[in-house]
Design goal:
Layout: E1 2-6, H1 9-13, H2 16-32, E2 43-47, E3 64-66, E4 69-71, H3 76-87
Parallel strand pairs: 1-2
Antiparallel strand pairs: 1-3, 3-4
Length: 89
């Protein structure tokens, strides 16, 4: 599974660094209990700017993309739920 987290200025101000920290914590949880999760590797990439905010006048930050599915106004809880749902056995 590939997770991209925007760390542009707007997304960072609205919590993207916290989301990255929570994903790191989730990796630790997965490694401690591998029997509950499938073997899919969790690839995380911090992207300087994905450009979503430039194409709209709406407030959409922070932006997270999980396997080509874009989440706008992403929260740590919503991102963790989506990741866990995809990798739980």
């Amino acid at each position: 599974m590939k997770v991209k987290v925007c760390v542009g200025s707007n997304c960072t101000l609205l919590g993207s660094m916290s989301i990255l920290d929570q994903i790191d914590d989730l990796r630790d949880i997965i490694s401690e209990d591998p029997d509950s999760y499938n073997d899919e590797e969790l690839e995380v990439e911090a992207i300087k700017c994905m450009g979503f905010c430039k194409n709209t006048d709406k407030e959409i930050a922070p932006v997270v993309v999980i396997d080509d599915e874009t989440m706008i106004n992403a929260t740590g809880q919503a991102v963790m739920e989506k990741i866990v749902k995809k990798i739980r056995k």
